Amino acid sequence: MTGARFVALVAATLLVSCRADSPRKAPPVARHPHTAASREAPFAPSPAASPIPAASSIPAPSPLTAPAAPAAPGACGAMTVRFYDVGQGLAALVELADGRRVLVDTGDDPARSSQQCHGACAGWHSRLMADLERDLGGHPIDLLWITHQHSDHLGGAADVMARFSVGQLVDNGQEPGKREVRHMHDVAASRGTRVTSIGPGNEAAALTSSPSARLTAIVPERWPHACARDANDCSIGLRIDQCASSVLFVGDAQRSEEDGLDPRGHVTLLQVGHHGSDTSTSPAFLARVAPKYAVISAGKRGEGTNAGYCHPRRSVVERLTAELGDAPTGTVASFDATGGCGKEGEESHWIDARTSARLWITARDGDVVLSSVGDGVFLRR
Ligand SMILES: [Zn+2]
């Protein structure tokens, strides 16, 4: 890694990957060049309830900052990561020690058809909005990070921006003409939320680190070929470091994208890719990340859209439990992929797999709130 590349990564990081969560074949991805450079803006600490800047007064990207300096023990403050139980989807709020708040993904679209979601999506969304109302406590969301353009990740974004103050929206710049993406961007414009697209070659301009929090986009050097047909493999990842603690979000990145990702070293806490699907969390990727803790955001068995996906997969749960290394303390219903999800006989392929005490699954555990004081340890609250 060159010095310039390292410095660039310090200030902003993206990651890409993930593939479509729709059980139906996704339409070809409409690719377009990244044109967001002129819209990029710094992600600066905002004290509280900062006014949303007018879209017409977007500042130029700020100079990249140095990595977070080593801090004395106890000087790191607390970082809290809240994985919300949004069923089959992802939404996680990170409260940084410097006071900033980062929301990674927004769960599914409450209006998703009952045929696709079996009536569950509206409930998942309303629960998320109530949780955000409580946990934000009137503070703004400084950064809304959309890992990729699938409904179960961006579906709640428009509503989130309409209801809460959001300083900056980051997405992967893909499929700008897709209805949900267009709607998300329209709401951002109407609310004066800055919009930045991040991807290969354009990962260093959107985020600003502070002495206590370093944000890095984790993206491959180029999109994998699979990105053109599967939005999951265009996920943009986000790594946040606070002293000796770190968290990595990978969205729904699958193996073809994982293979091209440099996580910038080991990670303390991992958001398990693609809801625990066996398309992701390859042994090679897991070895590079070497997490101490992990969270799978997945829906309950047979609930809503998860009736068509059967997340998480037994092989991934077992791989993670072996990697995390703590004595198994519980089990979780996980799907053995030797069976067909949604097919006759599916029932017999749901297995209670043993889980490490350092592995949480929202389908079983509900909201998972983890805190660290920068010492490489996360404790559940
Ligand atoms: Zn997903």
Task: Give an overview of the whole structure.
The chain has 381 residues and is an alpha/beta fold. The chain has one domain: Metallo-beta-lactamase, Chain A (4-Layer Sandwich), CATH 3.60.15.10. The protein has helices at 3-11, 114-117, 121-136, 151-154, 157-163, 179-191, 255-258, 283-289, 314-324, 362-365; strands at 79-83, 92-95, 101-104, 141-145, 166-171, 194-197, 214-218, 237-242, 245-249, 269-271, 293-296, 328-335, 350-356, 359-361, 368-372, 379-380. Strands 6-5-4-3-2-1-15-16 form an eight-stranded mixed beta sheet, covered by helices on one side. The chain has a six-stranded mixed beta sheet with strand order 7-8-9-10-11-14. Helix 5 packs parallel to helix 6 (179-191). The longest helix has 16 residues, at 121-136. It is globular, with a radius of gyration of 19 Å. Bound molecules: zinc ion (ZN). Zinc ion is lined by residues 21, 150, 152-153, 252, 275.
Relevant CATH superfamily: Ribonuclease Z/Hydroxyacylglutathione hydrolase-like
Shape type: globular
Are there runs of 5+ residues with pLDDT below 50, and where? Answer: 1-42, 45-70
Secondary-structure element pattern, one letter each:
HEEEHHEHHEHEEEEHEHEHEEEHEE
Distance between the termini: 38 Å
Structural class: alpha/beta
**Strand adjacency order, main sheet:** 6-5-4-3-2-1-15-16
Largest sheet: number of strands, sense, barrel closure? 8 strands, mixed
The level 1 CATH classification is Alpha Beta
Rg measurement, Å: 19 Å
**Architecture, according to CATH?**
4-Layer Sandwich
Q: Approximately how much beta-strand content do the residues carry?
A: 15-25%
- Work out the helicity level: 10-25%
What value does the average pLDDT take? Answer: 84
Q: Can you count the beta strands?
A: 16
CATH third-level topology: Metallo-beta-lactamase, Chain A
The domain count comes to: 1
Structure annotation, total helices: 10
Distinct small molecules bound, one entry per kind: zinc ion
